[in-house]
Task: inverse folding
């Protein structure tokens, strides 16, 4: 039995550099991946999960050989390149999912919650209340609906679409254009999600302005702020939350499309169905 395992161990140690490069891309990808990048997950657990994924990718045969300059500097440069590749792949997904937080800023501002922020346990930053609520809900749906598994499955396919050491990042003008287009879509989608509440609050502000002119004795701050908060909360839980499946599907499809477009843009080969 031990003699049968010996060739496998020899092959493993002869290709330990391949496993290390896979681990670098996987670890960098998980740093930015929604849910798994949260600081609430222990670092040891994330490293263990990254090692398990790397071992699975190595054992699946997706990465057969890696060609690079057989020097220390050549290997270090390849590690840096793979770290950038994995980090940018994860960042594309993380960036699109932050549309919800972006929309939450507009919602909180229109509801007079602009100065009321809370600590996000996932990102460890100050975030708007409504944005954090919707963002946590999106992360929960992402896990329950299996979206995280889909992201990981397409990430596995990235080792065929973008083999190790072949990513074209620096000086890639189509990718720069892609990032600009993604940013424009980010802004448009975020504003469109918050537009129903922004429009309603604008109508309330106009009505309050007319009432102040008609009744100068009325204290607009005493009447207006509680009214906007009550109407805003009603709209969030009566409009956004019941239709959150549509919002999630739109953001998830946008994230997946951008993820695939990014991989095709930096890869040397034609797209391959995973």
Result:
């Amino acid at each position: 039995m031990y003699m049968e395992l010996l060739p496998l161990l020899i092959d493993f140690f002869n290709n330990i550099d391949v496993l290390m490069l896979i681990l670098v891309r996987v670890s960098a990808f998980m740093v930015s991946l929604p849910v798994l990048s949260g600081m609430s997950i222990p670092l040891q657990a994330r490293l263990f999960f990254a090692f398990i994924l790397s071992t699975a990718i190595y054992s699946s045969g997706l990465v057969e050989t890696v060609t690079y300059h057989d020097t220390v500097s050549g290997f270090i440069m390849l590690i840096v390149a793979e770290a950038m590749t994995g980090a940018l792949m994860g960042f594309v997904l993380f960036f699109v999912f932050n549309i919800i937080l972006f929309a939450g800023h507009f919602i909180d501002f229109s509801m007079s919650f602009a100065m009321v922020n809370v600590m996000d346990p996932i990102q460890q930053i100050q975030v708007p209340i409504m944005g954090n609520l919707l963002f946590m809900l999106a992360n929960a749906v992402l896990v329950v609906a299996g979206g995280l598994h889909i992201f990981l499955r397409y990430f596995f396919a990235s080792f065929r679409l973008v083999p190790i050491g072949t990513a074209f990042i620096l000086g890639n003008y189509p990718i720069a254009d892609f990032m600009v287009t993604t940013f424009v879509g980010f802004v448009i989608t975020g504003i469109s999600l918050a537009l129903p509440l922004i429009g309603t609050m604008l109508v309330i502000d106009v009505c309050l302005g007319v009432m102040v002119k008609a009744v100068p004795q009325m204290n607009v701050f005493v009447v207006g702020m509680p009214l906007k908060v009550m109407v805003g909360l009603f709209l969030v839980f009566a409009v956004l939350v019941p239709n959150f499946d549509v919002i999630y599907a739109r953001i998830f499809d946008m994230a997946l499309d951008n993820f695939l477009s990014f991989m095709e843009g930096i890869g040397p080969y034609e797209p391959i169905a995973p």
Remarks:
- The chain has ten helices and two strands.
- The CA atoms of residues 117 and 129 lie 6 Å apart.
- Residues 173-214 form the longest helix (42 residues).
